[in-house]
UniProtKB/TrEMBL annotation:
Region (Disordered): 24-52
Family, per entry: Belongs to the multicopper oxidase family.
Organism of origin: Bhargavaea beijingensis
CDD domains the UniProt entry points to: CuRO_1_CueO_FtsP, CuRO_2_CueO_FtsP, CuRO_3_CueO_FtsP
Protein name: Copper oxidase
InterPro entries the UniProt entry points to: Cu-oxidase-like_N, Cu-oxidase_C, Cu-oxidase_fam, Cu_oxidase_CS, Cu_oxidase_Cu_BS, Cupredoxin
Residue stretches of biased makeup (Polar residues): 27-36
Signal peptide range: 1-23
Biased composition, class Basic and acidic residues, residue ranges: 37-49
Domain Plastocyanin-like as annotated: residue spans: 107-218, 389-511
Keywords of this entry: Metal-binding, Oxidoreductase, Signal
Lineage: superkingdom: Bacteria
Length: 512
């Protein structure tokens, strides 16, 4: 259970102003420009260690800052002041040698009254536009680095050759650009893109680099699919600001995962969402550096999960809450019809903190929604697949800077595993506990959408019967994955707590 913390009073004052994080991006839907000021941030549990303190850390000394999952900084509730920003759609280029252009750049974002917070964004000040590809479509994307440091452009969840994946070996230097070819040769899914430069990933994501990447069905969908109307991306992130309301990563970072008390959804502080349609599809991304979210509806209503990281579930699964570790996605359908119109409804976190209040633009009691449903044909994992022997073992271990996979830290010059293209193998991922019990590690593999065969020998929950590229692994847990790489190249596999990744909790698999 989370410990209760007392937040200092007077956290939020509503004032007028403008802080739509996509204000200067093309095609940004207009929003109400509410604005707010925040009192001193609650900088709990973000102790830092220097290298000296880390040495000989075999006991309990120097553990301040360790992300004990029972002791995570609580989030401040949304006051529901600003309409949620919707990332604009990335516009297709005309008369160019490429189809899309994505530029990593610096900017400023007015989260707080009278303060310009230095941020990073793609084609704008914060976060990035949504890139939509059709199933089977091939596009050429020009990527350009206008930051003052190297970056890469990683297409998280897209099954592209290693050479197009944007891993740490694919750095683009400041001022440079290149064109990558992306083929969306996989089922419709909610993916995302973010930087992946060696030891700079956590900082660049923390400062604002992330965008949604959709693979969409080639044919018309039965599901709500009007972007920004009844089909809405929700990027949940927590951020920690310093006394000057800056995202000074070097000052604020925590080697065990930088967590903050400030909740942002699509980069909006204190968001609310005006809901126009009774049946809504939310594409939820945990875009945090480290925090796990457990999301539910404040009125206790159930919702349906329809997709996991890599596409549609076997069948829609009715849920009361969903837990997503860093980088995981879920598509959910919320049916507002029949809800009590007098009772406010919000998306809340596990401890009940309001993260996204809804403002219903219709009377839910008289509204009707057409529920979507389908039934699974075959079992998601066949008996044959379940009987396959484990051929690759992954052991996740450690915390803070002392994180390893199979006892080793990342070495760009070392290939850790090899696997043949198109040949499925069973990976067993074990999260080895330590003397303090251990912590959750979200395990991500590039270049593949895998199936979860089992968790500690048991079938995964119904909402995990869908393709995945990241999986939450509890301390002491053994998760078996069925992994197939459809393309060739060198791919990363790593913990998606971005500080763990930067600290070397990463390996390389060569697909031949
Ligand atoms: Cu980790």
């Amino acid at each position: 259970m989370k410990k209760a913390y007392l937040l200092s009073a007077g956290l939020l004052l509503a004032l007028a102003g403008c802080s739509n994080p996509f204000a200067d991006q093309q095609d940004a839907p207009s929003t109400d420009n509410g604005h707010m000021q925040q009192d001193e941030h609650q900088g709990m549990d973000h102790g830092q260690m220097d290298d000296g303190e880390m040495e000989g850390m075999d006991g309990m000394n120097g553990m301040e800052g360790h992300m004990d999952h029972d002791n995570v900084t609580p989030l401040q509730a949304s006051e529901g002041i600003q309409e949620l920003a919707i990332p604009p759609l990335l516009k297709r280029e005309e008369n160019a040698e490429f189809d899309y252009e994505v530029i990593a750049q610096e900017g400023t974002t007015p989260f707080f009254e009278g303060v310009s917070t230095q941020t990073f964004g793609y084609n704008g000040d914060l976060l990035g536009p949504t890139l939509r590809l059709k199933e089977g479509e091939t596009v050429r994307v020009k990527v350009r680095n206008e930051l003052n440091e190297p970056t890469t452009f990683h297409w998280h969840g897209l099954e592209v050759p290693g050479s197009a994946d944007g891993g740490p070996s694919d750095e683009i230097q400041p001022g440079e650009s290149k064109v990558v070819t992306l083929k969306a040769d996989q089922p419709a899914a909610t993916l995302w893109y973010h930087p992946h430069p060696h030891e700079l990933t956590a900082k660049q994501v923390f400062k604002g680099l992330a965008g949604m990447l959709y693979v969409e069905e080639a044919d018309a969908s039965e599901l709500p699919d009007e972007y920004g109307v009844d089909d809405i991306p929700l990027i949940f992130q927590d951020r920690l600001f310093n006394d000057k309301r800056q995202l000074d990563y070097e000052e604020l970072m925590n080697n065990d995962g930088t967590v903050g008390d400030v909740s942002l959804v699509n980069g909006t502080l204190n968001p609310k969402l005006t809901v126009e349609k009774p049946q809504m599809r939310f594409r939820v991304l945990n875009g945090a550096n480290a925090r796990n979210y457990t999301l539910r509806l404040s009125n206790g209503a159930k919702f349906k999960q329809i997709a996991s990281d890599g596409g549609m579930l076997d069948e829609p699964v009715e849920m009361e809450e969903i837990t997503l570790s860093a980088s995981e996605r879920a598509e959910i359908l919320v049916d507002f019809s029949g809800m009590d119109g007098d009772e406010p409804v919000s998306i809340v976190d596990g401890d009940g903190t309001v993260l996204l209040p809804f403002d219903l633009a219709f009377d839910p009691e008289s509204a009707e929604a057409e529920p979507s449903s389908w039934e699974s044909g075959e079992p998601f994992v066949t008996e044959e697949e379940k009987a396959m022997p484990v051929s690759k073992k992954i052991e996740l271990f450690g915390m803070m800077e002392m994180v390893t996979i199979n006892g080793k830290k990342f070495d760009p010059d070392r290939i850790d595993l090899r696997q043949e293209k198109g040949v499925p193998e069973v990976w067993e991922v074990y999260n080895k506990p330590d003397m303090m019990g251990g912590m959750i590690h979200p395990f991500h593999i590039h270049g593949t959408q895998f199936k979860i065969i089992s968790r500690d020998g048991k079938e995964p929950a119904p909402n995990e019967r869908g393709l995945k590229d990241s999986v939450l692994v509890e301390p002491g847990e053994r998760v078996k994955l069925l992994v197939t790489f459809p393309e060739e190249g060198v791919y990363m596999y790593h913990c998606h707590i971005l500080e763990h990744e930067d600290n070397g909790m990463m390996g390389q698999v060569e697909v031949y």
